[in-house]
Amino acid sequence: MHTFDSLLASITPTTGPTRDIYDPATGAVVGSAPVHTVDDLETAVVAAVDAQTAWAALGHAGRSEVMLRAADAIDAAAEPLAELLSREQGKPLNGPNARFEVGGASAWLRTAAATPLEPEVVVDDGETFASIHYRPIGVVGAIGPWNWPMMISIWQIAPALRMGNAVVVKPSEYTPLSVLALVAVMNQVLPAGLLTVVSGGRDVGAALSTHPAIGKVMFTGSTATGKAIIRSSADTVKRLTLELGGNDAGIVLPDADPQAIAEGLFWGAFINTGQTCAALKRLYVHDDIYEEVCTALTAFAAAVPMGIGLDENNVLGPLQNKAQFDIVADLVDKAKASGARVLLGGTPDADQPGYFYPTTLIADIDPLNPLVVEEQFGPALPIIRYTDLDEVIALANGVDVGLGGSVWSADVATAREVAARLETGTVWINSHGGVHPMIPFGGAKQSGYGLEFGVEGLKALGTPQVING
């Protein structure tokens, strides 16, 4: 049975260079992470190639059985994993945060293991018979972010393993300990060499995206880095799944009930303190109910506690790093300077340790203000007034990204009609940002390409082969 100390000890290097990882809430040292090199990546890829053949030979049923035991191992270590995640990433233990994320990692692993993917007959007319099968790619490179380090790593790892691939994971330099610990727990069950973490810098990420033995790269992160991966992977024609930046819009129609939607709006925007790619980042509210929505949302937001994640009372935490804190602070300052109305927050406490930015709501803001058109990735939500539906849909679509969006209305049929006009990979009705392991998820425009989750997610981790005859 793991304790926090034993879990941390199991991933603390005994040789080689290390660097300290700090708690974004307190500044305290959480632990030491290895500083892996391109040579370490090469060692991991060689081991992955060696392990992959036998893993693929187990077949779907055999691999699923091992994956379910790996999920059991995660469940058995859930509490120390959650504590480590809270200390390193900053998110609180409770609410839709650290314990939720660890549980989600286990759930996604189980779903990938249990989801059937049978050969698909595409023609069978008595003269011609053709079917599609999905074969392992080989070695998959998984590059993850710092906002949901365990959950998103599993989104990459689980379908890759299920389809018979080996995986080399490159975690964010901000949150390597969480991913190292998650993989260490899984490797109590998995065959040696099949799943490896290479905790290095940008040079390691660049080498992973060009390595000739890696057949696919999965990446979740910024659009700029995604474009760099596209370019660097071109010479080896790697398969790619890219989940990139977003600036999700929510549109509240005039028939919505402000009190009824306030909680959903809040969590759509502020889950993980706003540090979520598919969070609600721009809220457009019809003039008829604008003030009522502002009042209801402000009342709800003011009552949600923010603080150190290990305090069981808190459900909002700090921003994970100073760079992100500075981005949010700059965008809010620009909004305030423009004359926008601050409903809540907007001024961090200079005497408070850690990267805490208060829950912030900004009303009466110009639709072209930087806080609206740029992704803030933090706890600051602009609320834009509108009167014309066609104009607000044009504003919602008027950015170069399209990960998610939402429509809020008492009339679901009308909401779906509006949803169909949004240029996004997902549109939610009367909620925002929820994901399900069987519902495909992916972006439009410069939010990336490729689908994750469910059967489509499994297919994306296989090489399709048509057998004709």
TrEMBL record:
Active site, per annotation: 243
The keyword DNA damage appears for this protein: no
Pfam families assigned: Aldedh
InterPro entries (UniProt xref): Ald_DH/histidinol_DH (IPR016161), Ald_DH_C (IPR016163), Ald_DH_CS_CYS (IPR016160), Ald_DH_CS_GLU (IPR029510), Ald_DH_N (IPR016162), Aldehyde_DH_dom (IPR015590), LUC3-like (IPR044086)
Domain Aldehyde dehydrogenase: 17-460
Enzyme class: oxidoreductase
EC number, UniProt record: 1.2.1.39
UniProtKB keywords: Oxidoreductase
Cell inner membrane recorded as keyword: no
Record-level Gene Ontology MF annotations: phenylacetaldehyde dehydrogenase (NAD+) activity
Recorded family membership: Belongs to the aldehyde dehydrogenase family.
Entry protein name: Phenylacetaldehyde dehydrogenase
Taxonomic classification: Bacteria, Bacillati, Actinomycetota, Actinomycetes, Micrococcales
